[in-house]
Specification:
globular; 17 helices; 5-stranded mixed sheet; alpha+beta; Immunoglobulin-like; 24% strand; 690 residues
């Protein structure tokens, strides 16, 4: 046994040394390859017509998540951000599409390694826009637009969410989606806006691949086919902050590479072609895109931890928050009782604190979430020796619960909401700062965790900055979210706002369920052992709410917009962590198997001279094997009272005073009183758990 163990250890060391050598060689190779090529950026043409989209082609970028490209007036300072797009992380070459600026002379500027270098231009390129008009929609960055789509580039098969504002609210107002460039009399796919609603959103079916316009026709009975507002977007063809990537049909990859601009050692800047000479058009190849995580939604009876909280979830889905809070308190108290699952104590504090927020019990929320967070920060990344040995003997459920990263990122924002609900702005500011620090620690300092990006936490942080009067800090968060409209709103704001911002938690987060592997009999030396284990997978909960309608004082204001898809984040994180989780389980099972084989061999040796002794020993070991397989339970613990998604709606310039605010969703309604103070922003929170 010792020799076999030594051989295995030798092989592991040998493979590790080989792997290190390969990685070192690869690192040297890539560093050299990056050193050989200077960054380059250029536009597709040297002269554009007014209204034409500007295609910017880049190459030899380092691929950092903070790299960005902008279009700025020629001669403006390098600190002028202009119209900008972040570059897809990990992408060294490709193209970005910008909206058309006003006629004039411009520069494209690339800022690489921005976190370290700041406003140091890595490459630049000159072009111009003339007066000749191109009859297309202008998606003007930073301008408040009466109609726009939720994003400028959709994947094939995605529904199109069209957001409208400043509508007159007539019963003949309508919005349509048509191919870009089609006549204004082309109705395309259309929907009427709800009568009396000045702002909201409409959801359209996925159109075919192509470039489209969303058009708004207000006062149609009087004005006919007069377009009040229009907005460009694309389906299946990246338009903004995406790779434009297709190689023309019939062209080889090598042909595209030859079309790229030649690199020289002295190319801090790029020189445009002589005036009047058309520049070479380039199609850059798209990098391979990671598939979206598969969302599994099936009917699975709850078990283990999810069974314990099934009654709580039932009360939440019908809006009975007081009853849900009472049950959550019982679950927590049971974990504190003698023989209770004390290792779940702080997870159950998260559950109780989250429900208390929905019930308006802000002091309870603050106390519970603070205590849980303090403990989680203490044990972050650690497992005690007794717990480690315990998990080898039984399973993960004996260890103290350490939350997933997406769960840790949700604690400070909920504390912000609790402090705001209580009227303690100083407390909200402290939690806002913790939110920013947590995002920086978990995401910005670890770009490989970009999938954890939490727009809800960023938006709430920006709102608190606004409430504090720190508009520059708010604009930083809006910039990271690429919300140019909000940046423009702050820049154009002359007086303090009387806005109300509504946050709605929608649905329930995915829950874990048990998946079984085995049993399988394994022969090892003179003995045999039965292997089998269970592991946890995620199942999406039933989703019945797509969006919510907000009314103020009985008047419909609009529908909420999704800002954070936590369900997608959870499944994405699970897919990334699954291999490590399975490796851990297999290691534990292998250890148990080795222990069982050893025990069987020792028993046979000790009892070889006792009649029927060996037989009895094998039977006893076989029974023990069945027992540990039955005891090997999957860890089904998670923060089950988190939402599936977070939605929001900003109600601009709501008059100061008391208002009745209501949220309506799929047969459910919640109402509460809010008070808007003169020159101050109000925040309201709801939980639509259906």
């Amino acid at each position: 046994m010792k020799k076999a163990g030594a051989d295995i250890l030798f092989m592991i060391k040998k493979k590790t040394i080989v792997l290190i050598g390969i990685l070192t060689t690869a690192a040297v190779f890539f560093q050299l390859s990056f050193a050989w090529a200077a960054p380059s950026v250029k536009t597709e043409k040297s002269v554009y017509k007014a209204g034409e989209a500007i295609k910017v082609i880049f190459s030899d970028a380092p691929g950092n998540d903070s790299d960005w490209i902008c279009i700025a007036p020629a001669g403006s300072p390098d600190t002028e951000a202009g119209s900008y797009n972040y570059m897809p992380r990990g992408t060294s070459q490709g193209s970005l599409l910008f909206g058309s600026p006003a006629p004039g002379k411009y520069e494209v500027r690339a800022y690489y390694n921005y976190r370290r270098l700041g406003y140091v231009v890595a490459a630049r390129y000159a072009f111009s826009v003339d007066q000749r008009k191109q009859p297309v929609a202008e998606n003007v960055p930073g301008k408040r637009l009466p109609v726009k789509t939720e994003k400028t580039a959709y994947q094939a098969g995605e529904t199109i969410n069209v957001i409208f504002s400043d509508a007159p609210g007539n019963d003949s107002d309508w919005i349509c989606i048509v191919p870009a460039g089609s006549p204004d009399t082309e109705a395309g796919e259309y929907q009427y806006t709800p009568k009396g609603m000045s702002q909201g959103s409409l959801v359209f079916k996925p159109p075919a691949t192509g470039v489209y316009e969303a058009r708004a026709y207000y006062d149609y009975s009087r004005k006919g086919y007069t377009v009040a507002a229009r907005y460009n977007f694309s389906v299946g063809i990246p338009v903004q902050a995406a790779i434009a990537g297709a190689i023309p049909e019939g062209k080889e990859q090598t042909e595209v590479a030859e079309a790229l601009p030649e690199k020289t050692a002295d190319s801090e800047t790029a020189t445009p072609s002589p005036e009047g000479k058309e520049q070479t058009e380039v199609a850059a190849a798209s990098p391979e895109k990671k598939p979206e995580p598969e969302i599994i939604r099936q009917v699975i009876p709850p078990s283990g931890y999810t069974m314990e909280y099934a009654p709580v979830v039932s009360h939440l889905t019908v809006g009975s928050f007081a009853a849900a809070l009472e049950l959550a308190d019982r679950n927590y108290q049971a974990s504190q009782a003698k023989g209770g699952a004390n290792q779940d104590k702080h997870l159950k504090l998260l559950e109780r604190g989250k429900i208390a927020l929905a019930a308006g019990n802000y002091d309870q929320t603050i106390a519970d979430l603070h205590e849980a967070e303090k403990r989680f920060l203490t044990i972050e990344g650690t497992v005690s020796i007794p717990e480690g040995l315990g998990s080898l003997a039984t399973d993960d459920t004996v260890a103290e619960y350490e939350p997933e990263m997406h769960e840790k990122l949700m604690i400070p924002p909920y504390l912000v909401l609790a402090y705001l609900g209580k009227g303690d702005f100083d407390g909200a500011r402290v939690e806002r700062n913790k939110t920013i620090n947590r995002i920086n620690q978990y995401i910005e300092e670890n770009p490989e965790r970009a999938y954890l990006e939490n727009p809800f936490a960023r938006l709430l942080s920006a709102v608190v900055y606004e409430m504090e009067g720190k508009h520059d800090d708010a604009k930083i968060e809006y910039r990271k979210m690429k919300w140019d409209d909000e940046i423009a709103r702050l820049e154009n704001k002359k007086e303090k706002a009387n806005d109300l911002i509504v946050f709605v938690d929608v649905g329930m987060a995915p829950q874990k369920y048990e998946v079984k592997y085995g049993p399988a009999t394994v022969i090892a030396g003179a003995g045999s052992v039965t292997l089998g284990f269970t592991y946890a997978a995620y199942n999406a909960m039933e989703a019945t709410v797509e969006n919510c309608t907000i009314t103020v004082d009985g008047k419909p204001i609009g529908k909420t917009n999704k800002i954070y898809d936590l369900e997608k984040t959870i499944f994405g994180q699970y897919e990334r962590n699954k291999d490590a989780m399975m490796a851990k389980l297999m290691a534990r099972m292998t250890g148990k198997a080795a222990a069982q084989v050893g025990a069987q061999m020792l028993a046979e040796q000790a009892l070889k001279n006792v009649p029927f002794g060996g037989l009895f020993a094998k039977v006893a070991i076989g029974v023990a094997s069945s027992q540990w397989i039955a005891a090997e339970k999957a860890d089904l613990r998670s923060w089950v009272t988190l939402p599936r998604q977070v939605h929001y709606l900003r109600i601009n310039e709501l008059g100061p005073g008391d208002h009745t605010l209501a949220v309506e969703y799929n047969g459910g309604t919640q109402t509460r009183q809010v008070t808007i103070e003169e020159g101050k922003i109000g925040v309201a929170y709801f939980f639509a758990a259906r």
